[in-house]
Amino acid sequence: MATALAVSLCVVGLDAVDIAHTPRLFARSLVGEVDFSDLLLQGILSLLLFAGALKVDLSLLRQYRFHVVTLAFVSTSLSTLIVGVALWCVSSMLHLALTLPFCLLFGALISPTDPVAVMGLVRVSGSPPELETVIAGESLFNDGVGIVLFSLLGSVASTGHAPSVSRALLELLREAGGGVAFGAALGYILYRLLKSVDQYQVEILLMLGGGDRRVCCGHPPSRFRTACHGDGGRANR
Fold it and tell me: SS3 sequence, the chain?
């Protein structure tokens, strides 16, 4: 992060003092070619959640499942409310035209935590395994709660009407329940495939493919396809 910030400051500084404009033009063209919605939501987030879930103790997670689910709902909803109201109060004092639904939408956007970073901090702090499992599990499950809150608050902000309770429950069932069902089915399929092979190259590709749902749905990104073809050629040789 520090390196990326330093490089960005250098690019901005060189452009500001009219020394070199090429880095800024290159960075702008590179950013313009990237679909950040597809890259973050369909690629990076999937792999981060996969890496985080891979290190969770399932037996302890099953034992503390009620604590995890309760914390995921309560903490994410409470954080959304606190951040949204605080932003609304600050914007009112600064005379900015931000309505409360849009402020709550921002709160829902930043409330879910990064499970990989959370588990890294918990392990460094030397917390008991039970507490580590609860915190890591909550960090994994609050993404689904955050998506549901963002979707509902986005509807309120755009239409001005609050969704019904039935729609909110259906949205939660679709995002959380559908994700659990899809993950369980995909996990079992990957388990059977991994059990049938004994080559680490194939196992790595299967695990990466399982972590990226674009690959699972038959739409792998071009770099992943290139890597697959390259590894296959080396394996044949």
Answer: CHHHHHHHHHHHHHHHCCCCCHHHHHHHHHHHHCCHHHHHHHHHHHHHHHHHHHCCCHHHHHHCHHHHHHHHHHHHHHHHHHHHHHHHHHHHHCCCCCCHHHHHHHHHHHCCCCHHHHHHHHHHHCCCHHHHHHHHHHHHHHHHHHHHHHHHHHHHHHHCCCCCHHHHHHHHHHHHHHHHHHHHHHHHHHHHHHHHCCCHHHHHHHHHHHHCHHHHCCCCCHHHHHHHHHHHHHHHC
